[in-house]
TrEMBL record:
PROSITE patterns: GED. InterPro entries: Dynamin (IPR022812), GED (IPR003130), GED_dom (IPR020850). This is GED domain-containing protein. It comes from Ilex paraguariensis (yerba mate). Residues 95-187 form the GED domain. It holds the Pfam family GED. The keyword Translocase does not apply.
Length: 187
């Protein structure tokens, strides 16, 4: 439940952030891709959160804290007769005390899980989202070719071609400036 609530809240924040980012409004395809990438990351983080939570619960039920049960009195005089069967050996009050101690242990473990599970969810989802929400998207974006990037920007092919030619011209101007500077400083 917690995991789903945190996941829904994070998705809502992503949608709000994307819709309120003015710079993305002029690039609808890029906005959709960023949103999809963010949701994919959040889904991955939610799955990791579920795994971590299940591991916490599994850890608790597969390993009992023995020290808790060492406090139980083991005296034969307190109601036990070693010659009788386990059911006849102890009186009712002794068995109730054991049941009460086991119930106390269960409550202690549940209390620990009530504290640990929300921490685990925040750690696996919120902290991870802050740290690396769009890392996979940026990696994938870096692998794309110029035409693929242009399609994300919804750019007119004529404008894209003009930008490419202007970038080449700028590079020529910079090379010429470097040549002029090298000659001017050598005198």
């Amino acid at each position: 439940m917690w995991s789903s609530l945190v996941h829904a809240l994070l998705k809502e924040l992503v949608h709000k952030a994307i819709s309120e980012t003015v710079e993305l409004k002029q690039y609808p395809s890029l906005r959709v891709e960023v949103g999809n990438a963010a949701i994919e990351s959040l889904d991955r983080m939610r799955d990791e959160s579920k795994k971590a939570t299940l591991q916490l619960v599994e850890m608790e039920y597969s390993y009992l804290t023995v020290d808790f049960f060492r406090k139980l009195p083991q005296d034969i005089e307190k109601g036990g007769n070693p010659t009788h069967s386990i059911f006849d050996r102890y009186n009712d009050s002794y068995l109730r005390r054991i049941g009460s101690n086991v119930l106390s242990y269960v409550h202690m473990v549940c209390g620990g899980l009530r504290n640990s599970i929300p921490k685990s969810i925040v750690y696996c989802q919120v902290r991870e989202a802050k740290r690396s929400l769009l890392d996979h998207f940026f990696t994938d974006l870096g692998k794309k070719e110029g035409k693929q990037l242009g399609s994300l920007l919804d750019e007119d092919p004529a404008i894209m071609q003009r930008r490419v030619s202007l970038a080449k011209r700028l590079e020529l101007y910079r090379a010429a400036q470097a040549e002029i500077d090298s000659v001017a400083w050598s005198k």
